[in-house]
Amino acid sequence: MSTTSIDALMRSVPVIPVLVVEDATQAEPIARALVEGGLTALEVTLRTPAALDVIRAMSRVEGAVVGAGTVLNPRDLDAAMEAGARFIVSPGLTAPLTEAAIDRGIPYLPGIANAADIMRGLDHGLDRFKFFPAEAAGGIKALKALAGPFGQVRFCPTGGISEATAPDWLALKPVLCVGGSWVVPAGTPDLAAIRRAAEAAAALRPA
């Protein structure tokens, strides 16, 4: 697996929207609003029965790079790839899923919360991780402490991050992007509001 591809994805946007979409008919309009607002990397979580259909629909939107989140095992991985996912995000790091992602050659962003997780990832040749759950796992203070011994590692903190706190995370050198659900709130999508939120998020470039 090429780690440069996940690195390029992380550098392509400051915020990766974390999407929980219940209705696949809403998928294309949401994706279009996000892309028009400047957010092209979209993480569709496998938390709803519609998730795979959402990935298929969003993948039809020009400019959208659609990935699957909440991928827990190789079975989820294969289903997401079959639906068109171009990258994979997991809440944690396990050997079976990591080996499957490397074997399939798909960009992979596993979740880590401590030094042991990072060391297991490094053993597999990975150095790009999701720091999750970012706020609950100790916030910026914890990430700074973790980054110290692992100078080559870069992170996408996700979990509890808001539009207000995202700039503080993005100001950290080890942070390439953040994941956030605030761009597309739950409920009936307000496409104009989603586009405005995407524009604001896309402007949060790290210094």
TrEMBL record:
Q: Which GO terms describe its molecular function?
A: 2-dehydro-3-deoxy-phosphogluconate aldolase activity
Q: List the Gene3D superfamilies.
A: Aldolase class I
Keyword rRNA processing belongs to the record: no
Q: What is its EC number?
A: 4.1.2.14
Task: State if Disulfide bond is listed as a keyword.
Answer: no
Sorted UniProt keywords: Carbohydrate metabolism, Lyase, Schiff base
Known catalysed reaction(s)? Answer: 2-dehydro-3-deoxy-6-phospho-D-gluconate = D-glyceraldehyde 3-phosphate + pyruvate
Which InterPro entries is this protein grouped with?
Aldlse_KDPG_KHG, Aldolase_TIM, KDPG/KHG_AS_1, KDPG/KHG_AS_2
Q: Which domain of life is it from?
A: Bacteria
Pfam family, any one:
Aldolase
Pathway connected to this protein? Carbohydrate acid metabolism; 2-dehydro-3-deoxy-D-gluconate degradation; D-glyceraldehyde 3-phosphate and pyruvate from 2-dehydro-3-deoxy-D-gluconate: step 2/2
Q: How does it assemble?
A: Homotrimer.
Name the family. Belongs to the KHG/KDPG aldolase family.
Q: What is the protein's name according to its record?
A: 2-dehydro-3-deoxy-phosphogluconate aldolase
